[in-house]
């Protein structure tokens, strides 16, 4: 049965990244045996050979099936055991086998498949380098909702197009992205299709979905027990949503527009939370042989959790920092850059009307409310007496000017969580 799922959480918790990984499951690769042979003869990398075989097959394969496929390619690999290569380049952690890069193979119910996100992350030009002669079949559409996105963009509408042959404008109804993917899914019921909607809460959902809001329910899909269909307003086509089309969306829980989500949409979607999680940060850094509790003397996990606890106390959990902000740090200077150029601007947006709370989050003030020596978020007082020689009848109060300390140090980071 088709899925309707919205992934939601604070910024930087990996919602879009997770959705991009899902997209790879909706791409078929038509790879010829000659392409695999030539690639292996040129590169001699066994992980590459097995990756192409698994991509060519498009489904899960056990070790015996992979071995038989290798034999049919006549590569003269005598006594070769694909299972050894699969294990060495597995995404699994632990075990007695020494893992090697790239770690791209995963197992499900004893059968192997390629983790496409890991593969394409390891080699960004993989398709260009090794599958340029292969045909790609996309079984998905990707769209980002925004305030001006409309029903005409999503389902169908009249959008004038110029016909060069007749030198006229064509005003016939044009299919939108959702109607196009529904047509493709209906024509190929043996395959699953998907539409991915980023920032789904940014658009006017009731207007964009229109009458289709009822048709997307799993039991109202084409071929299901309570099948529904409607006549579209522009083309007058009789339309229903196929039961092999999944709908996935992402939603930033820190976005104020989340409160405006249509109740009808809430009832028709599952909502899966992507919370901020320091354990994911620890696991990712450990893959790079880094201890998240000691990055050049900085306990990044404690720093991360402390900042988030203060944000939750001063605001709410929906505005906490996502672990993705710190996944690429390798030194304490990297952490300083993330704080100065990513975290501070975000917090300034959250607390735009009370910036002293940003100082509280970074523990930049002492018990007397004065700046600490290694404060991250500083201030200076702008006094009218120092800036004007004459103010006349104006009663101008002093104000605080806030800014990031230009001389951040290792101590600045440790100070966040130590006192």
Automatic annotation (TrEMBL):
InterPro entries: ATPase_dyneun-rel_AAA (IPR011704), Methyl-DNA_Rec/Restrict_Enz (IPR052934), P-loop_NTPase (IPR027417). Residues 134-269 form the ATPase dynein-related AAA domain. This is AAA family ATPase. SUPFAM superfamilies: P-loop containing nucleoside triphosphate hydrolases.
